[in-house]
Structure formats: C-alpha cells, structure tokens
C-alpha cells in the first residue's frame, strides 16, 4: 500500500452513517455523504445496507472502495473506557473490547461495532482503525476524573468522568495554538464545543486536564435535547414522587430536555428568531444555556490558572455571534473581551473575535472531526 493515500472515515450512529473520503497526501476531501433513517421506512434496512449504499454512492462519484488507492478505514468510536486511550488498529480482540464497553454507551458503541464489522467484510485486506471520542480526555487527572462516591462501587461499575467529543477538542485546541502562531505545548485553551451535543474542555499545553461531560455525554453544558448537569436527586424525585421509570427518565434527560425541553426548539437559529418575536420561553432557554456556559468558563479558568485562549466551535459556537457575545459579556476581569465587529463577521476560517492585544484570545475555530480521525488513521495505517 506504499502509494495508497485515501482514508475512508465512518461515523456510524444509531440511525445514520456519515462517511467521508479524504486523500491524505493532500488532506483534501474527495467526497462526503450521509445515509439516514436506518431501520426506518424509506431508509436503509440496517447498517450493512447503509454502508453498501455509501459504497455505491462513492463508486458513482468515481471513488470505488475497491480502489488500490484506499489505504485504511477510520472509525469514530464513542466510548473507549479506560482501556482505549489512543487510536487503535482493529483486531478481533479490540472489537471484543469495544463490545465489552456497550453498557457504558448503549446507544453508540453497538452501531460503531457494526460499522467496523461491515467495513472489515467489505475490505478485509485493509487496516481498520478505531478512533475514540474519549481518548483525548484520558489525561485528565484523578482529581477531576473521579466522582466523590464510594470508591469500591465506582471502580466495580467503571464510574468516572471519561469525557467525549475528544477528536474535536484535540483538533480545535491545536488549531487554536496555530491561529495564535504558537506551539500547542505553550498555550492553555478552554475549548467550547457547542453543537447539538455540547461540551467544554480545559487544555493545558496540549494536554486535556478537565472536561464537562462525564460517564456519558449527558453531563455538563445545556445541549439541544440533553439537560447537562442536574442534581442527581432530581432522578430519585422523579422516581419516588413522579412515579417515572428509569427508561422514561433516561429519555426525558437525553431527548426531551436541554433547549428543546425549555422552549420546544433545539435549534439555536429558531431560538434566535423566536427571541426576536419576544418569545419568553425562548429567551429563558437562551439565558439558561448561556449561564451554564459561563459557569464552565469560570470553572475552567480556575482549573487552568492561566488562560491564553477561549475557542468556540461546532454548529452553535461557529455560527452564533449572539451566544459568543453573551458567553463572554462582562468578563473583562478575566481578560476575556469580544469585539462586536469581529464577532459579527461570518466566515468558515479560524479567526479571532477579541480585540488585538487582549490578555485572552477569544477565537472561532471550526472543528473537523473527520480530518482528525483520518490523520490518526493514516498515521497508524502507515
Ligand atoms: P452535531 O452535534 O449534530 O454535529 P453541529 O455541530 O452541526 O451538531 O451543530 C448543530 C447545531 O448548530 C444546530 O442544532 C443549531 O442549533 C446550530 N446552528 C447551526 N447553524 C447555526 C447558525 N447559523 N446560527 C445559530 N446556530 C446554528
């Protein structure tokens, strides 16, 4: 495979498969697509069929997966537990290890496992690489990773803070250093990944030292449909007083909470529109979202001690000037200032939104999880 330089990146979710083909000789994106509604009417029957559809689509665009140019397949895997802390070449044993982690990520890891199995059948000759969403957070010190519960119980059930969106936090923290013209080892960055899912991380000198998501991607920031932090007693209360079952509460907190639960919409664009029309629920949702974000900015400022940059990324972070302005308002005391003119600029490039000479650089840094996965995959496959 000396000359082969294509990498196929697969992100197999519970009901969709996103795919991208990149040429790593140039890091150029050759093709990208998504197969949605797996298992639903009008969608693909299962993950195997979804992947075949992806392969057909790529073939029609001139990028057959039977090509000798294809060097490897990179898979996004959500949960690596404590066992997988770096990109890993898939073997039968590794696959079994990812399956062992299903109880920690029941919605995600099974789809990831299926994606790997199908891709292996498609091209058994190729290296398959698993890139874990948790891996970048493996460096978080014990003080931040441990929950203050009975150690014996916690260890028996693997309960600790793992963190997620790791490929994004890794990519964005490095890209932020590059934007500042400095080495990752020399800068401390707070990364705010604000998409449908949302998480914050504190990165000291290129090494992650804290993150807002925990055992699962439910903890931390207010998200599109997830509550983020709640008092755990809310759950007992819903059980004892509300008569709700475990699965019902799981659905409530993961799918019917966050922005959606607060105002009936989970898209920040719609919330902005409704706020413009004087919708009080939308206003409250925005304020709860921003308040939580500011708490984490403050907390991670204390964790890092010195902050060189705050980086906004993902759908909301890259596009919502209103969220960025509100999140950074009145934080001059922390050295964080947003220039309204710079903040209003729409661009797909990494850029500063703080005034020149600010103590802390406030930046918008578009994430690229697929490129990060492709880089990890290519490096390992070679
Ligand atoms: P995912 O977590 O699914 O990858 P994204 O990072 O693509 O999500 O973020 C999706 C979210 O980004 C949308 O739900 C929406 O709230 C937000 N978003 C996208 N475009 C804009 C925009 N122009 N203004 C405000 N919010 C936006």
UniProtKB/TrEMBL annotation:
<feature type="site" description="Transition state stabilizer">
    <location>
        <position position="165"/>
    </location>
</feature>
<keyword id="KW-0418">Kinase</keyword>
<comment type="subunit">
    <text>Homodimer.</text>
</comment>
<feature type="binding site">
    <location>
        <position position="76"/>
    </location>
    <ligand>
        <name>substrate</name>
    </ligand>
</feature>
<protein>
    <recommendedName>
        <fullName>Acetate kinase</fullName>
        <ecNumber>2.7.2.1</ecNumber>
    </recommendedName>
</protein>
<feature type="binding site">
    <location>
        <position position="369"/>
    </location>
    <ligand>
        <name>Mg(2+)</name>
    </ligand>
</feature>
<dbReference type="InterPro" id="IPR004372">
    <property type="entry name" value="Ac/propionate_kinase"/>
</dbReference>
<feature type="active site" description="Proton donor/acceptor">
    <location>
        <position position="133"/>
    </location>
</feature>
<comment type="function">
    <text>Catalyzes the formation of acetyl phosphate from acetate and ATP. Can also catalyze the reverse reaction.</text>
</comment>
<dbReference type="Pfam" id="PF00871">
    <property type="entry name" value="Acetate_kinase"/>
</dbReference>
<feature type="binding site">
    <location>
        <begin position="193"/>
        <end position="197"/>
    </location>
    <ligand>
        <name>ATP</name>
    </ligand>
</feature>
<keyword id="KW-0479">Metal-binding</keyword>
<feature type="binding site">
    <location>
        <begin position="315"/>
        <end position="319"/>
    </location>
    <ligand>
        <name>ATP</name>
    </ligand>
</feature>
<keyword id="KW-0547">Nucleotide-binding</keyword>
<feature type="site" description="Transition state stabilizer">
    <location>
        <position position="226"/>
    </location>
</feature>
<dbReference type="InterPro" id="IPR000890">
    <property type="entry name" value="Aliphatic_acid_kin_short-chain"/>
</dbReference>
<comment type="pathway">
    <text>Metabolic intermediate biosynthesis; acetyl-CoA biosynthesis; acetyl-CoA from acetate: step 1/2.</text>
</comment>
<dbReference type="InterPro" id="IPR023865">
    <property type="entry name" value="Aliphatic_acid_kinase_CS"/>
</dbReference>
<feature type="binding site">
    <location>
        <begin position="267"/>
        <end position="269"/>
    </location>
    <ligand>
        <name>ATP</name>
    </ligand>
</feature>
<dbReference type="GO" id="GO:0016301">
    <property type="term" value="F:kinase activity"/>
</dbReference>
<keyword id="KW-0808">Transferase</keyword>
<feature type="binding site">
    <location>
        <position position="11"/>
    </location>
    <ligand>
        <name>Mg(2+)</name>
    </ligand>
</feature>
<keyword id="KW-0963">Cytoplasm</keyword>
<feature type="binding site">
    <location>
        <position position="18"/>
    </location>
    <ligand>
        <name>ATP</name>
    </ligand>
</feature>
<comment type="similarity">
    <text>Belongs to the acetokinase family.</text>
</comment>
<dbReference type="InterPro" id="IPR043129">
    <property type="entry name" value="ATPase_NBD"/>
</dbReference>
<keyword id="KW-0067">ATP-binding</keyword>
<keyword id="KW-0460">Magnesium</keyword>
């Amino acid at each position: 495979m000396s000359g082969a330089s294509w990498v196929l990146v697969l992100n197999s979710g519970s009901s969709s498969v996103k795919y991208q083909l990149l040429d790593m000789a140039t890091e150029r994106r050759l093709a990208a697509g998504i197969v949605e509604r797996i298992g639903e009417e009008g969608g693909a029957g299962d993950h195997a069929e979804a992947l075949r559809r992806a392969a057909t689509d790529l073939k029609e665009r001139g990028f057959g997966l039977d090509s000798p140019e294809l060097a490897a397949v990179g898979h996004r895997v959500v949960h690596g537990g404590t066992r997988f802390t770096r990109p890993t070449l898939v073997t039968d044993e590794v696959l079994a290890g990812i399956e062992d982690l299903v109880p920690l990520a029941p919605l995600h890891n099974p789809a990831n496992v299926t994606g790997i199995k199908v891709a292996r059948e498609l091209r058994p000759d190729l290296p398959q690489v698993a890139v874990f969403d948790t891996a970048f957070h493996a460096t978080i010190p014990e003080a931040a990773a441990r929950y203050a519960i009975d150690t014996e119980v916690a260890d028996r059930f693997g309960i600790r803070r793992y963190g997620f969106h790791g490929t994004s936090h890794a990519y964005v923290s490095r890209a932020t250093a590059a934007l500042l013209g400095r080495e990752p080892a020399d800068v401390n960055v707070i990364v705010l990944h604000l998409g449908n899912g949302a998480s914050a991380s504190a990165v000291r000198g290129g090494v992650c030292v804290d993150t807002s998501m925990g055992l699962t991607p439910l903890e931390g920031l207010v998200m599109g449909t997830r509550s983020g932090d709640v008092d755990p007693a809310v759950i007992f209360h819903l059980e004892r007083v509300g008569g709700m079952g475990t699965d019902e509460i799981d659905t409530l907190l993961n799918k019917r909470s966050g922005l959606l639960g607060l105002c009936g919409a989970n898209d920040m664009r719609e919330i902005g529109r409704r706020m413009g029309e004087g919708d009080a629920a939308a206003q409250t949702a925005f304020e709860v979202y921003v308040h939580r974000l500011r708490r984490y900015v403050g907390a991670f400022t204390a964790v890092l001690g010195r902050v060189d940059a705050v980086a906004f990324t993902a759908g909301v972070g890259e596009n919502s000037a209103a969220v960025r302005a509100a999140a950074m308002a009145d934080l001059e005391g922390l050295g964080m200032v947003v220039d309204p003119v710079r903040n209003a600029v729409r661009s797909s490039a990494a850029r500063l939104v703080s005034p020149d000479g600010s103590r802390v650089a406030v930046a918008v840094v578009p994430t690229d999880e697929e490129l990060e996965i492709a880089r990890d995959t290519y490096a390992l496959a070679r």
